[in-house]
């Protein structure tokens, strides 16, 4: 596995998480924005425009991608709670990353968006019944997944990208 691409390893689902494990996933989501802020703190625009690996996105693109991906995940989750076995939408993330908002919008806008999104998401999922997490959505990318898996993917995805940022900082001595 490419350690630069997957610094925390690839995603592995916990098939039958305990209530304590589920609580830990939710708590990790609650603290992600603070970790992202720490990861990008003090970086110059030149540093933000550095790819985290050869052929990879710039740090700025990674931050904007996190906001877009997590908004999509939030909507997928809400559809899973309100519809029977919905087909979840997806987006062409590689094309979105090339749009001008990724290049010219300050990352603070995406961090603020993530802060608000995480408040809403944590508020929603921390009050669900265990049976709610068994509901299923169909992802064009991953196939059928329970909301238990969706929460885990949500948590992993942000930690994964934050680790890409911090790994580059460490590598470059920033």
UniProtKB/TrEMBL annotation:
Residues 32-165 form the DinB-like domain. The lineage of its organism: Bacteria, Bacillati, Bacillota, Bacilli, Bacillales. NCBIfam families: PRK13291.1. It comes from Paenibacillus qinlingensis. Pfam families: DinB_2 (PF12867). It comes from the Bacteria. This is Damage-inducible protein DinB.
């Amino acid at each position: 596995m490419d350690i630069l691409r997957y610094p925390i390893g690839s995603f592995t689902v916990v098939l039958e998480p305990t209530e304590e494990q589920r609580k830990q996933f939710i708590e990790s989501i609650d603290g992600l924005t603070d970790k992202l802020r720490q990861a990008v703190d003090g970086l110059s625009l030149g540093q933000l425009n550095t790819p985290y690996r050869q052929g990879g996105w710039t740090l700025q693109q990674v931050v904007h991608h996190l906001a877009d991906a997590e908004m999509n995940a939030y909507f997928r989750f809400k559809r899973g709670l309100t519809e029977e076995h919905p087909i979840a939408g997806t987006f062409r993330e590689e094309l979105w990353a090339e749009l001008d908002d990724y290049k010219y919008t300050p990352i603070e806008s995406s961090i603020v968006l993530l802060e608000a999104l995480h408040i809403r998401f944590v508020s929603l999922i921390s009050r669900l019944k265990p049976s709610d997490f068994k509901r299923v959505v169909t992802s064009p990318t991953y196939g059928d997944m329970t909301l238990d898996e969706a929460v885990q993917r949500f948590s992993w995805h942000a930690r994964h990208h934050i680790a890409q940022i911090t790994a580059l900082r460490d590598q470059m001595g920033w």
